Every structure is written in C-alpha cells, then in structure tokens.
Amino acid sequence: MKVVAVIGARPQFIKAAPVSRVLREAGHTEYLVHTGQHYDYGMSQVFFDELGIPQPDVNLEIGSGAHGWQTGQMLIRLEEVLMAQRPDWVLVYGDTNSTLAGALAAVKLRLPTAHVEAGLRSFNREMPEEHNRVLTDHIADLLFCPTQTAVDNLRNEGITAGVHLVGDTMYDAVLQFAAVAPQRSTILARLNLTPKGYLLATVHRPSNTDDPANLRSILAAFAEIEEPVIFPVHPRTRKQIAALGMDADPGPTANPRMIEPVGYLDMLALEQNARLILTDSGGIQKEAYWLGVPCVTLRTETEWVETVAAGWNVVVGADRARILAAVRQAQPPGERPTFYGDGRAAQHIVRILRSHDRG
C-alpha cells in the first residue's frame, strides 16, 4: 500500500508522527509531502527531529500568504505530486489550508482520500479552520474521528459512510513522549522555573491575533497575573504585538515572559509542570487534559467539548476580567474520563486503510 501524507503545520507534524511510524513499520510506502505552511525551524524542523518523523520526500515551500493564495499554490503543486505518485491513499490531517488543499487535489484526481481528525466542529464559521474541516469531511472517502462527539457531528450532517471512531493520534504521541520529555528537556532549568510555579500561555488564532482589542485584552490579563506567565510566541503573534506598538520582547522580568517557539519535548515539559495553561490552541487543550493540568481557553468556543464537560477546561474568550477570574478559580477537578481512544489510534487508522485498499 502506498500512501501520500500531506502535512504543513506544527499540529499536523504531531498528529502524523504516530501514523507515519506504524505505516513504515508495517512495510507500507509513505510519501511525505510538506507544504511549507510552517517553515521556521522552531515551527517545523524541530518536530521532525524530536518525533522521529522521516524527512519529507518533497517540501513545496509555499510559505505564508493570504488564505486564497496559499491554498491555491498548494493545490497546484500538490496536484503535480499526486499525478506523479498515484498513491492508493492520500492522507490529510486536521484543519489547515494544507488539509483542504490536499483533499481537493486528491478528489479531483479521483484518488481515495482519508481525513485524520474528522468530524470536529466549533460551529463558528468565522474560523478559517471550520471551513477547512467541514469541506474536507464532505469530500473524503474515509473519516477517522477522535471522539464520539465527532462521529455524531458527521451523522448530523448526513455523513455516515466511511466514518470510523479511532481515537486521537495526538494522544498516541503524548503517551509515547510524556515520559521522555522530562529526561530530554532542560527548559525548566534554562528558564529557572519550578514545577507548578508558573502558568503557560499560547496565542495564535486569527480571532485573537488579528483583532487588536482581543490581543490587547489578553496581554493585559497576562500582565495582571501575579504568577509568572511563560509565553512561547508564534512568529505571527509577535509580529501583531509589534504592530500594536507594544513591546514584543519585554524581557525576562515582565509578565508575560515572551520566549521563542519551543519544540515538542520542551512544550510537553512546560505543559506537564505548569499550574495552569491559557491557550487558544485545540491541541494544547487536549494535551493539558491528558497531562492533568487545568486549562483556560482563550476563545468563545471549543471543538474539544469533552474537556469542558469534565471540568478541566473553561472557555472564557478574550475578556480580561473573565481570564483573570478563571485563573484565580482554576483547580484540578479530579477524575479525567477517557474520551480520546486507547492510545492506538495510528494502528487503527493503518488497519482500516489496509482493509479498504483497492490496490
């Protein structure tokens, strides 16, 4: 079986790593295409190094740009790759422009297409990711869902064929690397941090970074928090902070304490040892849950509703007062029900792909 896997952004590298490993260990051929959507070392190559992902067979080097231009460039280049490779399956991950471009290029060439992390819905059509995931789900042949909620979302849209509840491949990765991170990461020592003596924050969604009022409100809340707030800053977010006339590098004594993006193992170590995580990232919401760290979501909604229902995640948006109240009130609620599979999502995905292989 030959699979072309399309990845391009930081969360996709994590989702793809367990599947890539299982595919190759089973003797299947994986042709890995990196669209170049994320291209800085800290946003791309470090994940290949730490997660053991093979180097891409091709890097399209599309880079940043407006959504239409970026998706269009990917579509053009991916079509060329797929015509040359003619795989048994095209595998796309998540909800980025790389996801949609990969799915569109495949279906227009009548190549079987599978979507990993299918069925997620924020029900916020202002999010570019929502359009990407909905469109991809409606054109893919196989839909690999991480939760029962995702399966139900697809059923409500009339999609039942090819739907499989497999669990979350990011959970596979956390189970594999959570024990490794404390041994290999030195970030707590480098930043002079003590376990549970700081908060961890990430902000990258356009709804926050491209809205000056939201970004100012979030940063104002961070500045008022009495505990240290460690803030690995996405390059795009740093640019938007500077555009507001705010200091994008305020120094090690200010709150938030802005640092460069970190690799997967350093991020796991920071998450494991934080008292609380503040984020607008879907992946980090889940990682916080799996690691038993309370989470405050800096959005008005979340796809990962299970974490909220279990009491480990509170959704507050960008309002300063609500953020500060959530930080003060956050406490680990106790049990963490299993919502995201058995940690073998990658094995389930490869088994199902093989069972549907038309080769």
Task: Using brief descriptors, characterize the structure shown.
alpha/beta; 6-stranded parallel β-sheet; 14% strand; 359 residues; 7-stranded parallel β-sheet; 13 strands
Compute the average pLDDT.
Answer: 92
Total strands: the figure is 13
Rounded to the nearest angstrom, the distance between the terminal CA atoms is: 7 Å
Strand and helix order: EHEHEHEHEHEHEHHHEHHEHEHEHEHEHH
Strand arrangement, major sheet: 3-2-1-4-5-6-7
- Secondary-structure class: alpha/beta
As a percent range, the share of helical residues equals: 40-55%
User: Sheet with the most strands?
Assistant: 7 strands, parallel
Give a short synopsis of this structure.
With 359 residues, the protein is of the alpha/beta class. It contains 17 helices and 13 strands.
Structure in words:
By secondary structure, the chain is an alpha/beta fold. Helices cover 46% and strands 14% of the residues. It contains 17 helices and 13 strands. The strands form two sheets. It has a seven-stranded parallel beta sheet, sandwiched between helices. Strands 10-9-8-11-12-13 form a six-stranded parallel beta sheet, with helices on both faces. Helix 1 (10-25) packs across helix 7 and helix 3 packs across helix 4. The longest helix has 19 residues, at 67-85. The radius of gyration is 20 Å and the shape is globular.
